[in-house]
């Protein structure tokens, strides 16, 4: 699969397109999502720059938020099926790829009247705004 890989911390130039990244495997309570749109959030840039308190092991695929279609479900996943439209607020393997894995507790159904592009913005931006305004 194609994915953006970050092999060193730095500015946007450290993001490189890789063509031969293996499609990730799902574990129990995880789903494989075919990514149709990925969210871009400020925290992604902080992590990429190496200035964020949480630094992933290099190399890594950036991106927490995305929307797409379930391609595979792991053992013990009961709330999703292959073909379901979903969005996620946190990936296990990174959203800047053709496929990503997410824990089923971080995945939500995406109604048919919401586009994948809109769905990719429901994660961090929407829930942050909701918390700021309501909670």
Stretches with pLDDT under 50, minimum 5 residues:
none
Cα separation of the termini: 40 Å
Domains (count)? 1
Question: Pairing-aware structural class of the strands and helices?
Answer: alpha+beta
Describe the structure.
With about 140 residues, the protein is α+β, with helices and mostly antiparallel strands. It has one domain (about 5-135): Medium-chain alcohol dehydrogenases, catalytic domain (Quinone Oxidoreductase, Chain A, domain 1, Alpha-Beta Complex). Helices cover about 20% and strands about 25% of the residues. The protein has a five-stranded antiparallel beta sheet with strand order 6-3-4-5-7. Strands 1-2 form a two-stranded antiparallel sheet. It is globular, with a radius of gyration of 15 Å.
List the defining traits of the structure above.
135 residues; alpha+beta; Quinone Oxidoreductase, Chain A, domain 1; five-stranded antiparallel sheet; globular; NADPH binding; quinone reductase (NADPH) activity; Alcohol dehydrogenase-like N-terminal domain-containing protein; GroES-like_sf
What layout of secondary structure does this protein have?
Blueprint: E1 3-6, E2 15-18, E3 30-38, H1 42-49, E4 66-73, E5 85-88, E6 99-103, E7 107-109, H2 116-119, H3 122-133
Antiparallel strand pairs: 1-2, 3-4, 3-6, 4-5, 5-7
GO molecular function, one term: quinone reductase (NADPH) activity
Pfam families: ADH_N (PF08240)
Domain Alcohol dehydrogenase-like N-terminal: 27-111
What is shown here, in short?
Keywords: NADP. One of its GO terms (cellular component) is cytosol. The protein is globular, with a radius of gyration of 15 Å.
